[in-house]
Amino acid sequence: MKIKGANVSVSQAQAELKALYANLSAVILGKQESLFLILVALLARGHVLLEDVPGTGKTMLAKALARSLKGQFRRLQCTPDLMPSDVTGLSVYRSDRHEFQFMPGPVFTDILLADEINRATPRAQSCLLECMEERQVSADGDTRALSNAFFVIATQNPIGFHGTYPLPEAQLDRFLVRIRLGYPSLESEITMLADRAHQQPIEMLQPVMDVDSLSRLQSLATRVTVKPDVLKYIAEIVRTTREHDSVLLGASPRGSLALMRASQCVALLSGKTFVTPDHVKRIAVPVLAHRLSLKNASDSAAAEALVAAVLDQISAPVTAAA
Question: Cα dist. 34→25, 91, 147, 279, 286 in Å?
Fold first, then answer.
């Protein structure tokens, strides 16, 4: 089964993605849906906001992803004194050469872990906007391209933890999905303890693809068919979030595009060449909830419940096979 104009079949792509999923599952136990959403964001060339308490495996996940893709991994520890140049890099004068030399910041990588992003000031957070949206850095009058595989996993402690601040709406809108890993089940935690008694499973991970292979799969995902009735369904969902009585600020047109792209990736991961309403429903909450500002609530659970209610409210089209 092939997608029109593609050089690889859906079954081949699915096999490669299953291998990547298996690698991540060997390190992060019992979090199947969260890992699925990570792959959706990766395929859609989006970015992930991981909202969770410390110690649930967020850093390990980012490292496992980079190792699985044979990609470069960098970590950015966000603190209140973080400066934009700490993120993007800066020019340093070289007395031996009598010239300035640009020293790249941590964004010049394939997989970037922006740890505890909501501990950084808005000024430091905002310098990531251009990097995440345009995959480039403008500094000292020059524009420098980032890796084609540039992928941000930003971690965020729940609001209310000491020293944390809400991310601005423009920053939140740059993340394709917001997910949580959460604490493991009892069985998963016992397995984790046994697996790590003598070594770290990540040390045994082998790459299953490279960044060029990932780019090919990302291009394939954009070719997944989205029929007009499904496009209308996506638009109706997003528009309803803007018109809801409880919503102060609904999802933007960027949210509509994100929902469409994510739905295409869900379809590809499911071995389909076309998007169905069920694909849209599966991804709508993690794609849209963090983009909403509610009038009388600020917690993420309320926004997620509202998106789920919108999905129940709108009739899904009946879509035949492409």
Answer: 10, 39, 25, 16, 10
Pinpoint the alpha helices (H) of 200-313.
Answer: 211-222, 228-243, 253-269, 277-288, 300-313
d(C-alpha 163, C-alpha 156), whole Å: 12
Indicate the length of the chain as a whole number: 322
User: For the segment 303-317, what is each residue's pLDDT rounded down to a tens digit?
Assistant: 999 999 999 999 999
Question: The domain spanning residue 160 has which CATH number?
Answer: 3.40.50.300
Cα 103 to Cα 227: distance, rounded to the nearest angstrom: 47
Which among 112, 121, 189, 190 has a CA at the least distance from the CA of 155? 112
Q: Report yes or no on 158 lying in a domain.
A: yes
Q: Which amino acid is at 86?
A: D
Query: Is 0.85 surpassed by the pTM of this model?
Result: yes
HSE of 14, CA atoms in CB hemisphere, 13 A: 14
Provide CB contacts within 8 A for 186, sequence distance 6+.
Answer: none
Using only the alpha carbons of the chain, give its radius of gyration: 20
